[in-house]
Amino acid sequence: MLKHFLVAPNRDPGRRAPRSIGLGTSTACEAPAAGDVVLVAERDGSIAGFAAATRVHPFEYAKPQLRVSAIAVASDARRSGIGAALARALEARAEAMGCFRVELTSAHALVGAHAFWRSVGYRDAGRRFVRALEDEALTP
């Protein structure tokens, strides 16, 4: 089951998020701001995956786009269609928000992630250059 999920501070202090899908172990999160999308996939009552994205409007485009900041599927739920369902749900939210596309960046080493994104219809569209202004350990 996939549902739109607004994360709230200490939503359920007794329930910890599983490490295997990159949520860490803290349940204390800030509520999403306007333009943010957080989706959670559940399977058998447990979190099986999540996606997070933000509506942004770069200067050079006439319309906004949805920028994916994170997507992860629990290791025991991979290749079950959850990742594809999350991607489709992000696309539907993007359309509803008036976005003309969904975009993301992915590290060179994440070859499996690149194969996944291609399998759901995404294409390579450029390079990303960064220069850290803070300690590299603090930035993704």
Task: Explain what you see.
17% of the residues lie in helices and 24% in strands. It is of the alpha+beta class and 140 residues long. Strands 1-2-3-4-5 form a 5-stranded mixed sheet, with helices on one face. Helix 1 links the parallel strand 4 and strand 5. The chain is globular.
Write the layout of secondary structure elements.
Elements: E1 2-4, E2 36-43, E3 46-56, E4 65-73, H1 82-96, E5 102-103, H2 111-119
Contiguous helical run count: 2
Oligomer: single chain
Question: Kindly, what is the distance between the CA atoms of the first and last residues, rounded to a whole number of angstroms?
Answer: 29 Å
SSE series: EEEEHEH
Q: Could you tell me the number of beta strands?
A: 5
Write down the overall geometry.
globular
| Rounded Rg | 16 Å
What is the average of the pLDDT values? Answer: 80
Low-confidence stretches: 6-28
Structural class: alpha+beta
Strand content: 15-25%
Order of strands in the sheet with most strands? 1-2-3-4-5
Task: Specify the helix fraction band.
Answer: 10-25%
Main beta-sheet annotation: 5 strands, mixed
